[in-house]
Amino acid sequence: MTSAKILGQAFDALLEPEKFRDYGPNGLQVEGDRDIQWLVSGVTASRALIEAAISANADAIVVHHGLFWRGQDGRVTGWMRERLRLLLAHGIHLFAYHLPLDAHPELGNNAQLARVLGLQAEGRFGEQNLGFLGTGTQTWTGPQALADHVAHTLGRSVTCVGDSERPVQRVAWCTGGAQSYFEAAIAQGVDAFITGEISEPQAHLARETGVAFLACGHHATERYGAPALAAHVAQNLGIQHRFIEIDNPA
Q1: What are phi and psi of 123, to 5 degrees?
Q2: Which is nearest to 25 in space by CA: 42, 8, 39?
Q3: 185: which of 91, 168, 193, 195 fits an S-S bond (Cβ 3.0–4.6 Å)?
Q4: Cα–chain-centroid distance for residue 35?
Q5: What is the DSSP code string of 16-80?
């Protein structure tokens, strides 16, 4: 049998959450009362994921987006009450790792997105070195060719803004809501930047600098780290793992 303490220690040893300034607590967020034989991974600790984990008879869940964030209303009412009620009623442990899971060089969201898209990481950039730099296994004839490749691979539409004639070889990427990293990526001399979301200023910057900006979906770019982490730890601890995908168009 594996306890929550042992599982948490395994996650912490890999991700080293103490090294990050984050927006919420990393590690065990809700303590259950079960020995752990079945671990479920997912992107976000939504009610739908919790209900699916209950149906799968999970003992623990590990996600990228947990329940608690800096500055949120601390009252346990409404949707928060229901998520907590389900976890506590079924004795399920909830673990969450945000920036540490983005950053891990092999199992993290950025590393796993690179694996899926065929990108070779060669360096880091940006705040807390969360952004990745590298090249593709091919040179795309322009931003739209790269966008088509990403859309086909991730199975969702991509918003692409940039110089349609500029070949793309050197790429920067940072999963999720990392649009604020765009200027730092431009300074690295890349041809394109891949992330999850786009805000109003980035479209202008892309047009004015010629560096393409690809918004590929917050959820879509961050659905690979949690299952990679969970599968690795589950194998080492001799427990079972299952990734549960809860679709999200954002």
Answers
A1: -175, 180
A2: 8
A3: 193
A4: 27
A5: -GGG---SS--EEEE-----BSEEEEEEE--HHHHHHHHHTT-SEEEEEE-S--TTS-----HHH
User: Could you tell me if 239 and 36 are in contact, meaning their C-beta atoms sit under 8 angstroms apart?
Assistant: yes
* Residue 1 pLDDT greater than 80, yes or no: no
CA angle 173, 168, 249 (to 5 degrees): 45
For residue 89, give every residue at least 6 positions away whose Cβ sits within 8 Å of its Cβ, in sequence order, or none.
none
**R_g over Cα of the chain:** 19
CA dist 179 to 107, 131, 142, 206, 247, Å?
Answer: 22, 11, 20, 12, 22
Q: To which residue do tokens 């300034």 refer?
A: 21
The string of pLDDT tens digits covering residues 37-77 is 999 999 999 999 999 999 999 999 999 999 999 999 999 99
Question: Which residue type is seen at 48?
Answer: A
Cβ contact 121:114 at 8 Å:
yes
Beta strands in the chain (DSSP E): 27-30, 38-44, 60-65, 93-96, 119-125, 131-140, 159-161, 168-173, 192-195, 212-215, 240-243
What angle in degrees, to the nearest 10, is found between the helix axes of 109-117 and 143-154?
A: 110
> pTM for the whole thing?
0.97
Instruction: Name the one residue in this structure whose structure tokens are 């991730």.
Output: 154
First-residue to last-residue Cα distance in the chain = 37
Judge contact between 228 and 116, C-beta under 8 A: no
What structural domains and CATH numbers belong to the chain?
4-102+224-243 (3.40.1390.30), 113-221 (3.40.1390.30)
